[in-house]
């Protein structure tokens, strides 16, 4: 492969270079990412009463990460609960009267519809009140804090960015001709720039599409030993060498 051909490829890929031993050394740049990540928001506007975690803190799934002042929402739960209770009482009264022949069946159906509507409004109020506590959807760490206590946060405004603990996703883009030998389950190593160390990894998945412009394909890998690794780190993935004839 000529220097000119190499210069036309994407800088993300370090194409295979022919060594003096006649073997191909396969290397490609790689990026580490959390298996799961999310940016948590409110359905405000709500007053942010307190944030329970800070940058880098670990938390468990379901743990409360932030609390909002939801006095108005809690009051609405009480009001709609009263309306629902009254609607059920009227429905029960109509049902007794229809058995006595004092009213028709239409009156009962209308009372039942009112009770159903009140039940829906109560469920809606309770759901809104449940959002007064911002809970972690999974176990992980705080990657970024976007807001502070005592601020009024608008709807969809970011409050916390979080990433999951555990195995990291490793993504790399390699030349598509590697598909002749690269398979799911193949082992390889990754030298991470930030730590200066090499780690064992394996191919977890291959993209279902080749990029025709760069003749490359995305590869998803997994690293199990992540004790000193963080999402966002990058490095060089080194795949086992193959004879040039292959």
TrEMBL record:
Keywords: Signal. PANTHER family: MULTIDRUG RESISTANCE PROTEIN MDTA. Residues 1-25 form the signal peptide. The lineage of its organism: Bacteria, Pseudomonadati, Pseudomonadota, Alphaproteobacteria, Hyphomicrobiales. This is Efflux RND transporter periplasmic adaptor subunit.
